[in-house]
Amino acid sequence: MASLYQRFGGGLATIFIALVVLWLAGMVLAPNLMMVDYALRPNLPPAQIGGPNDVYSLDNILYLANESVHRSIFFKTIWASALVAFITFLVCYPIAFWLAQRATMGQAAVAILALTIPFWINEVLRTLAWYIILAFRGPLNALLLNIGVIDAPVRWNGDGGVLAGMVYAYILFMLFPIYNSIESLEKSQIEAARDLGASTWRIHWRVVMPHAKAGIATGCVFTFMLAAGSYVAPALLGAPGSRWFTEIIYNWFFEGGDWNRGAAYALVLLVLCLFVVLATLKIARVNLTDVAK
């Protein structure tokens, strides 16, 4: 705070701080407080709002606890989001290590450019591209049929398609934090471990991963939160039996017309996601300051 005033002066620094406070209050705090207010109030006709029946209660949240189908979809969304984070880590870690420790500057620049260019396209269009790839008569089935891997087309849309689409959609949120962490690791430490007889697996487990734990935790947090709150991938790549919890929230708001119950569902998802994230950071022994970096 003091450095901000020293750099920009009192007037300009005060304007910057006021804009930040206004942004946090108007775009972060106020919507969440409104969501809590909606979640704790009943869904009433306009004429009854503010009347004797308009009281705070936990009925909307308890409805989720008593609705077995919605409850199972809720927990499925949580563990599936964790699975998305884990698969994304498995995909990104070797790439991040190669970029940070093995690739030349030219190779790294080309690889990063190749990874980022597809993300200049809107997420909906990228997900539709996956829909085409995984379609019953799409190129994936055509390729597998031509090389003899399968005898008949397979319906890839469903849980598998949603996982594939999410891993692709959020790969950069895992890749860059891990890459930034591994890049700061001195190559001499890896060489010293190898000289002492450590295997490749042991080098990664005892040297690289502990050094990059802040980046790994950051990537897992970002990926998990984005997957748990995703709507586009489940809506386009899912099947009737692979519903995501965000689809139920969407239905409450825009099809069922019950904003109060939709807000309650969203609040439960937010609270549990925050709990999972904080537990993950605690287990990894990483604080929020490291994630913010």
TrEMBL record:
Kindly state which keywords UniProt assigns to this record, in alphabetical order. Cell membrane, Membrane, Transmembrane, Transmembrane helix, Transport
Localization, per the record, is: Cell membrane
Main location group: membrane
| Native source species | Aquamicrobium zhengzhouense
Keyword match Membrane: yes
Please state every residue range assigned to the domain named ABC transmembrane type-1.
74-280
List the protein's name.
Answer: ABC transporter permease
Q: Give the family this protein belongs to, as stated in its UniProt record.
A: Belongs to the binding-protein-dependent transport system permease family. CysTW subfamily.
Q: How does it sit in the membrane?
A: Multi-pass membrane protein
Q: Does Transmembrane helix show up as a keyword for this record?
A: yes
PROSITE patterns registered for this protein in UniProt: ABC_TM1
Which superkingdom does the taxonomy of this entry point to?
Answer: Bacteria
TM region(s), chain numbering:
12-34, 78-99, 105-121, 128-150, 162-179, 214-237, 262-284
